[in-house]
Design goal:
By secondary structure, the chain is an alpha+beta fold. The protein has a single domain, classed as Factor Xa Inhibitor, CATH 4.10.410.60. 39% of the residues lie in helices and 11% in strands. It has 3 helices and 3 strands; from the N terminus they run αββαβα. A 3-stranded antiparallel beta sheet has the order 1-2-3. The two termini are 15 Å apart.
């Protein structure tokens, strides 16, 4: 049986830290930034940890 391929879109969107957490970028940081406050834009620029419910699904998608 051939090897399972990883989801290429997921590989580009998520990364795994040294401790095993899965990091993602925040939504709403791409455009229409003039309407958002400085505080909000600063918060959106930082990556965040993926929620517990999505962790297993994403781990399966990004494993090679």
């Amino acid at each position: 049986m051939p090897k399972q391929k990883s989801t290429r879109g997921a590989k580009k969107r998520f990364r795994v830290t040294g401790s095993g957490k899965i990091m993602r970028r925040r939504a709403c940081a791409g455009h229409k930034l003039t309407k958002k406050s400085r505080k909000q834009k600063r918060r959106l620029s930082k990556p965040t940890v993926v929620s517990k419910r999505d962790r297993g699904r994403i781990r399966r998608m990004i494993q090679a």
